[in-house]
TrEMBL record:
InterPro entries: Phenazine_PhzF-like (IPR003719). It comes from the Bacteria. It comes from Planosporangium thailandense. Belongs to the PhzF family. Gene3D superfamilies: Diaminopimelate Epimerase, Chain A, domain 1. This is PhzF family phenazine biosynthesis protein. Keywords: Isomerase.
Length: 261
């Protein structure tokens, strides 16, 4: 079987920045073990598998080691593939996913998508988290699967060198660190998820489902310009709309071809 594959850099206007994602187009979902093997072979933070379905598309996401219930940057990339390659001229696409229907709309040369809000709840900072980060957070919260750690300043986020093996042993599958921005950005963040096969994710749409309501509660604002301060880096225009988070970003196509299965 020969199927199309695309690789895009999401949440960036240029190649070799943002977060790379693979998008594989199928006529039906194949065996889970095969999908996982393809994602492991691609060795990107996420591989998205899309299947046409009555004017919409079904969508699943895999890291190199596990299937995940939500991935923002690979959804943005999948939307770009649909409207720019599979159905040129189309301006909107709905993906049916494990997190419900997700819509991606074209906006000039960029895209807007809506993801479900993640409820954030404050918790005392666990000693194991502070040890793994090498710093005690100013505040700590959980959004379900992740810890969210507020640090003193943006430089602390940028310079952080956590113990990834220790993070992988925590009782949550990922850690988001954040601080108020110190320039043109309202806040900065980084995301570590070694337990899911992602030591550090370059730009994480899903993390902003918690970051946006977290910062909205602190500032009273509902619109933000955010920066994820990984080595590749990426910018996200964010807006809180009820129980949804709108994320705006661009994608740069890097690779187009076929894989043999």
């Amino acid at each position: 079987m020969r199927v199309p594959i695309f690789q895009l850099d999401a949440f960036t206007t240029r190649r070799f920045a943002g977060n790379p994602a693979a998008v594989v187009v199928l006529d039906r979902f194949l065996d889970d073990a095969l999908l996982q093997a393809v994602a492991a072979e691609n060795n990107l933070a996420e591989t998205a598998f899309v299947v046409p379905s009555e004017g919409r598309y079904r969508l699943r996401w895999f890291t190199p080691t596990v299937e995940v219930p939500l991935c923002g940057h690979a959804t943005l990339a999948a939307g770009a593939v649909v409207v720019e390659r599979l159905e040129p001229g189309r301006d909107s696409v709905v993906f049916d996913t494990a997190s419900g229907p997700l819509t991606v709309d074209r906006e000039d040369t960029a895209y807007r998508m809506e993801l479900p809000v993640r409820t954030v709840r404050a918790v005392p900072p666990p000693l194991a988290l502070s040890a793994a980060l090498g710093v005690t957070p100013v505040e700590t919260a959980i959004d379900g699967n992740n810890y969210l750690a507020l640090l003193s300043g943006a430089d602390d986020v940028r310079s952080l060198q956590p113990d990834l093996a220790a993070i992988a042993r925590l009782d949550r599958t990922g850690v988001v660190v954040t601080a108020a921005g110190d320039g043109m950005h309202d806040f900065v963040s980084r995301y570590f998820a070694p337990a899911k096969g992602i030591p550090e994710d370059p730009v994480t749409g899903g993390a902003h489902c918690a970051l946006v309501p977290f910062w909205a509660a602190r500032t009273g604002k509902d619109t933000f310009f955010a920066y994820q301060a990984s080595r590749r880096g990426g910018e996200l225009a964010c807006r809180l709309v009820g129980d949804r988070v709108q994320l705006h970003g661009s994608c740069a196509f890097y690779l187009e071809g076929h894989i043999e299965l």
